[in-house]
Write a structure and sequence with these properties.
With 386 residues, the chain is α/β, with parallel strands linked by helices. The protein has ten helices and twelve strands. The chain has helices at 26-34, 71-89, 140-153, 171-184, 202-210, 237-242, 272-285, 303-316, 332-335, 342-356; strands spanning 12-20, 41-49, 55-60, 101-106, 162-165, 190-198, 227-236, 249-258, 293-296, 323-329, 363-369, 374-381. The chain is globular and about 65 Å long.
């Protein structure tokens, strides 16, 4: 087993976690997921027709405190609960000067949810797709969420340090890549990164059913929708040490790439971009490559995702033999598909496993694939106690 990674002053560490999910807050939810507990239930307010014409309800993983809210209000309800969970564990964060603190929110890709996928011959129209490392301009809705959350949390993070990413599942990889750059160049001392999404929101459910992605009696490989919000607090190690913060894990590298054969283009992915993102983080963050890698993926049961995951394992088998199928977690089995919150939720699960000692390997590799082509990978690991 490889040694834990030593820390230097410029190392980026995780010092705080917050989560709101169908299984509760971070500590309780991660323990419940480890025990195999789920709270999937029938979505009584969203009836569907079975193959024999009878009416049934789809199933999903609801956050009960968010029921009754839709759209922006639902994301705010989830996000505030997750931030409150983090602040409950890290109350001193409120008293820190935040002039050099960043705030990045990773939100649903609503453009992908407004229509059916285009015909196979239609090229992607999103102008940001060809520049996966570029943070797009903040949206009005994203800035409003930032304003509301900083006000509720009593965090004086400057508005100039806010941004939001609407890339869906893999958005956090892009956000963490940006945060690592800003932390290592000392533009920021710390960064709060949040992932919010709800696939049980009425509008999301209608879209999933309309495009035949919702798991119903005649669609057994469809999505079981979920919802969640999760926050991670990244800090440069010297700043964390100065304030006496606990360091839970070290973030070694993040990468974002673009897959031209993606779901919205109606082309079967052969995992070229996903394998590239994984290869990049494993090659640049470890020398030599780690002997054991523990995979946490956003695979949700769809045939498209299963094919891409299998292709990725085949592509990387020779280069990284440590990528073993039996060392894999899929959070969707406990929480449903949580969209833009999937990757940060996976980080929460990995860090809690490190803290409680049930991790599968000293290095966790978290991966995600967005419908519109973004592919992300992130490596986190244990570190030496200093």
């Amino acid at each position: 087993m490889p040694q834990k990674r030593p820390l230097s002053g410029s190392s980026v560490v995780i010092t705080g976690l917050g989560l709101e999910s169908s299984l509760g807050g971070c500590i309780m939810a991660c323990a419940a997921a480890r025990a195999g507990i789920t709270r999937a239930r029938e979505l009584q307010e969203f009836p569907v027709l079975a193959m024999d014409g009878t009416q049934e309800s789809a199933r999903g993983h609801l956050v009960l405190t968010a029921t009754g809210f839709q759209g922006h209000a639902r994301l705010l309800s989830l996000g505030w609960a997750a931030l409150e969970d983090l602040l409950h564990q890290e109350p001193e964060l409120r008293g820190l000067p935040h002039g050099r603190t960043g705030l990045i929110l990773c939100l649903p890709d609503l453009e992908s949810r407004r229509s059916r996928p285009p015909p196979p011959t239609t090229p992607p129209q999103n102008p940001e797709v060809s520049h996966p490392h570029r943070i797009p301009p903040s949206s009005p809705e994203g800035r409003e969420l930032c304003a509301q959350l900083t006000r509720l949390g009593k965090l004086s993070i400057p508005e100039a340090n806010w941004s939001d990413i609407r890339w869906g599942h893999a958005g956090p990889a892009l956000a963490i890549h940006k945060a690592l750059q800003s932390l290592r160049t000392r533009d920021w001392n710390r960064c709060l990164i949040g992932g919010f999404d709800s696939l049980v929101d009425p509008n999301a459910l209608e879209w999933l059913h309309d495009v035949r992605r919702l798991r119903v009696p005649d669609k057994p490989d469809g999505i079981i929708p979920g919802e969640a919000a999760s926050f991670i607090l990244l800090e440069r190690f010297d700043a964390a040490r100065e304030r006496g913060a606990n360091t839970h894990a070290v973030v070694t590298e993040a990468a974002a790439t673009h897959e031209s054969h993606h779901y919205m283009a109606r082309q079967t992915s052969t995992a070229l971009a996903l394998a590239e993102a994984i290869s990049r983080v494993l090659s640049t963050s470890h020398d030599p490559a780690p002997d054991q890698v523990w995979l946490i993926g956003d695979h949700n049961g769809e045939t498209y995702r299963a094919h891409e995951w299998g292709c990725m394992l085949v592509r990387l088998a020779a280069q990284f033999p440590s990528l073993r199928v039996n060392d894999t977690w899929f959070p969707a089995s406990s929480f449903g598909d949580t969209g833009a919150a999937s990757m940060t939720l996976g980080i929460c699960m990995a860090v809690r496993a490190f803290r409680r000692g049930y991790h599968r390997a000293p290095t966790a590799l978290i991966t995600a694939s967005s419908d519109a082509g973004l592919r992300g990978a992130l490596c986190i690991g244990q570190h030496e106690t200093i």
